[in-house]
Amino acid sequence: MLFRIVSTRLIQNAKFISRSFSSTTKLNAKVTVCGASGGIGQPLSLLLKLNSRISHLALYDIVHSPGIAADLSHISTKAMVTGHLGPDQLRAAIEGSDVVVIPAGVPRKPGMTRDDLFNTNATIVRDLADAVAQYSPKAIICIISNPVNSTVPIASEVFKKRGTYDPNRIFGVSTLDVELDVNQVNCPVVGGHSGVTIVPLISQCTPPVSFPQEDRDKLTKRIQNAGTEVVEAKAGAGSATLSMAFAGARFTDSMLQALAGEEGIVECAFVRSDETEAKYFSTPLLLGKNGLDKNLGLGKILDYELNLIKAAMPELKKNIQKGEDFILKG
Ligand SMILES: NC(=O)c1ccc[n+]([C@@H]2O[C@H](COP(=O)([O-])OP(=O)(O)OC[C@H]3O[C@@H](n4cnc5c(N)ncnc54)[C@H](O)[C@@H]3O)[C@@H](O)[C@H]2O)c1
Where in the numbering of this chain does the Lactate/malate dehydrogenase N-terminal domain appear (predicted)? Predict the structure, then answer.
């Protein structure tokens, strides 16, 4: 059983990798990575350089980005790579982009929560979102920078201020929570992206799995704590970077497929949502030519999972409010 589950995920990932190398391209996209020189940014940019749907990969950072771009440009795949260093070159990096991926900002160290990153990362995401709102307001934004529960509301408020807000185009990338499931099954993870706000819907796993309640509880807590496990294992040297780069590249590829008109592309992400009383919430989403096409909602869930969602609400709403206040009252 375990082998079957593992191989299902491996097959899905192998499909993603072969898609990335595939020569059938319906879209010549410009993709910008903001924070391209970081622990996530570098492997993410490498994976995106292999994606044949991308014709221009623009790498922005406040350090080292011209060097990273020069290095990647020696890989013999289609995408032209340009490096952009510092705020003066941000506009050129962003203008004309179809998708802007943001892994810029400081990561956690052991003992830190994602919320502890707020003070530094809120400003970084605000300024990058403001540049996108001005120079490429129709771009899809995929935010990796933590705390995602607050950085997505921050970006949304920035777009509202600029009068270019479209809730269907701003996504918090929470798919690492899906990837890090200990059993490697494909499991929707809903809610937010920190601690108790991460809610795995084990009852909706494919292939279906069945656990005694005690094991379901242990597995749920392990998934909620998966990112923290990596932070602790790296013992001060950073948080999940390689797995996050893969999750980010996979999410970007799904978005590019949907933008190119492919149907039936579904990903979980943290977006503006009416599914619960929280203004932003992660659920499975059908992606389309304009970003979010249809929110597929929570579906049928167990009482146990409903209670997890209820327990997540106070923290989630607080994180969202904090992000909104940063722009509205800051
Ligand atoms: N969504 C998730 O599941 C998930 C998982 C892991 C990490 N993260 C988050 O991703 C972020 C990046 O993590 P990392 O390990 O790559 O960190 P890192 O410190 O290795 O890299 C961050 C990069 O951002 C750059 N940067 C800083 N300020 C910038 C600015 N104003 N404009 C552009 N670039 C700027 C830095 O120069 C650096 O290259 C962190 O906030 C981390 O918490 C999210």
Answer: 30-172
Which amino acid is it at 254? S
Please tell me the distance between residue 242's alpha carbon and the centre of ligand 1 in angstroms: 12
Q: Which of 63, 193, 35, 194 is nearest to 129 (CA)?
A: 35
Atom of ligand 1 nearest to the CA of 172: 1
* 5 within some domain: no
Task: Return the ligand 1 atom nearest residue 176 CA.
Answer: 3
How confident is the model over 55-69, as pLDDT tens digits? 999 999 999 999 999
Q: Give the pLDDT confidence of 231-248 residue by residue, as tens digits.
A: 999 999 999 999 999 999
Q: Is 146 one of the annotated binding-site residues?
A: yes
Q: Is the minimum distance from the CB of 279 to ligand 1 under 6 angstroms? A: no
How far apart are the C-alpha atoms of 118 and 274, rounded to whole Å?
25
Is 107 close to ligand 1, i.e. is its CB under 6 Å away? Answer: yes
Q: Is residue 218 part of a domain?
A: no
Check the annotation: does 104 bind a ligand. no
Place of tokens 């179809």: 98
- Is residue 121 a known part of a binding site? yes
Residue with CA closest to ligand 1 atom 1: 144
Check pocket membership of 37 for ligand 1, CB cut-off 6 A: yes
Q: Is the pTM for the entire model greater than 0.90?
A: yes
Is the residue at 22 inside a domain?
A: yes
Please give the tally of structural domains in the chain. 1
Alpha carbons 68 and 255: distance in angstroms, whole number: 24
Distance (Å) from CA 172 to ligand 1 centroid: 14
Domain for residue 187, yes or no?
no
Asked whether 117 lines ligand 1 (CB < 6 A), one says yes
Q: Give me the phi and psi of 99, to 5 degrees please.
A: -135, 130
How many C-beta atoms lie closer than 10 Å to residue 306's C-beta?
12
Q: Domain of 255?
A: 13-177+230-293+313-323
Give the CATH number for residue 79.
Answer: 3.40.50.720
